Amino acid sequence: MSNYQEIVNLNIGGTRFSTSWHTLTWVPDTFFTALLSGRIPTVRDESGAIFIDRDPNLFGLILNYLRTRDIDLNNVNIRALRHECDYFGITPLSRRLALCDEMNHSSCGDVLFYGYLPPPLNSPVPSRHNSSCSRKSSTASTTEPPTNRTHSRNSSLDLRNVGRIAAQEPLSRCGRGHSRTASLGNADCSRGHRPPEINTWTDSMKVQIIKAHHNWIAVASTHFVTGYKLTDACGWYVVFQSPVQDSPIDRIALNAKTGGTGASTSGATASGTDIMLGIASGSIVRLWAFSTHGEPVRRTLIGTFNLGVRVEHLLFVGLQLVALAGGGRGSKCGVWHTSTQHWQVQDVAHLTTHDTAGSFLLLGTNTGHINYIDMQKFPLRMKDNDLLVTQLYKDPNQEPITAISVYLTPKTNLCGNWIEIAYGTRYGSVRVIVQHPETVGHGPQLFQTFTVHQSPITKVSLSEKYLISVCSEYNHVRSWRVTRFRGMISTQPGTTPKAAFKVLALEAIAAQPHNDCGPYGEQDEEQIFIQKVVPDTDTLYVRMASNGKRVCTIRSVDGSAVSCFALAECEGALRPRRLLLCGHRSGATQIWDLSAAIDRAAKTVQSVQTAGGSNSEDKRASEDDATVPDGGPTPDELVRLLSACDLDATPVAVPQSPNRPIQAP
């Protein structure tokens, strides 16, 4: 008992503290009870005080709690204080801080949280002996009827049940029926609580790719794809699942509302087809059609095609499935046409980038050319087996084209030959070309050139109100306001950028195709960037593409890391919804409704810009304030993100500024 009255002198990070033995040890089984009992070796300073290398400010709060059993949390970083309590083993205070911290987080998310899709119940495990369903003949189409609704836990390991699910398995938008513990199944797996065969394929359950079209989404894991549909009455529910693929899935493409155009299978027609799904693994492309109007859902394998080289892009242009591969002279374009049931592959040398506009597929090349393929005329060229790749424009300096964006103006619908194209080059140039009725016979004309970037352009977007470009220097963004007269772009000499900011993303180059920062959104609406700073993070930052301002911050409701994301424009009973779809390493998909947040952010900027209308100086100040690039993570947020990221192990793309060629006079 005499020890309880003994004074203990402490040196915490260079700051001296004096307290009693009893104060430090009244909480049992802590760092201090072990220290003062001799179970932990002590280090003393020159005055004999026990030295502990921790934060003195946070320790002062903990010591005050040990003295008074009370604590003042005003202006205190609760997470940092909780970390110190865990270090010292002050369990009573740590539990209180944990509750305070969790009050700001919920498994139901915040007001933007829109839905939770758990990992598929019949999660398949690939097997060399049972994967015959993925080795169908490339010439014959087969119809595979789904099995019944009944699923057992063991049946998830049986490939015979994969992809043969019932048409409609209801899933609540709020995730009702799924506990928070269940949503952390991937974490349990890493701790060894699942069977060994499941542990082997834990990473294969991670959501790799998400694609959306209308009110449908396709969620791809490593070896299979699950399709969901959104309705106002039922929310999200499972509709189809693809067969298991032997090889990992690299790309997927989804096309909803195919107009009932069925796939011919052995002389029969799969009538009522409303979903088409393309999957690329290496150079192999498989295409399925799903008829979801009746019970059960019918899945038809249209065909298995070989591009000859690894597929880098897979997309639908209208009803045509298009597979593209770059790589200089080895570039290829493969097209499957719905009505002719024909797969065609053609070399398209020097392919570097692409974009779509209606029925046109535009191709940028390494030689400075912009070519196009008109998909509507594709069936007319079956006899000569030619996709008719036609040159549309040639860069005046023959700079390699690395990004392209097409904007179809309201004039396009009236006369059909008014088109605006923005493109970027490897040397940092951004150019806008315009074709209008007066110059149809001469092709598009160069309208304006910007040379403010010093690194290769990776993305460019031309919309109704803005021209946005992104270069490879840590996703450095420039945005310009586009002035229009009667819907047509008009000349504004001396145009200056509206904003300049960076959308930092420290992710491996190989993972970026499925985590493209944007910009996302329709060309007549406010576009946004999605910023994922580090690879293993549960936090995304949504920013306006026009000025970099933050729209909102998205955090995983279960703490699992975001593995991929996509934006979906979904129809609703009252208004369209802009949904952010986040795939997670746990195999779950979390959905966030950004519509209200984007509208609110856009209105805020507009109100700031018009606030000083009567005073020119106030107006300029308001506009300058509105364009401050403060939308990304704050220094504190960035440090917190980077603290969980091994920068030495993270491949960071350091841009190399190419030697810019001399501009032609």
Automatic annotation (TrEMBL):
Region of interest (Disordered), residue spans: 125-198, 608-635
Lineage, highest ranks first: Eukaryota, Metazoa, Ecdysozoa, Arthropoda, Hexapoda
Low complexity composition-biased segments: 127-143
Polar residues: compositionally biased ranges: 144-158
Protein name: BTB domain-containing protein
Domain BTB stretches: 6-75
SMART domains cross-referenced by the UniProt entry: BTB (SM00225)
Pfam families: BTB_2
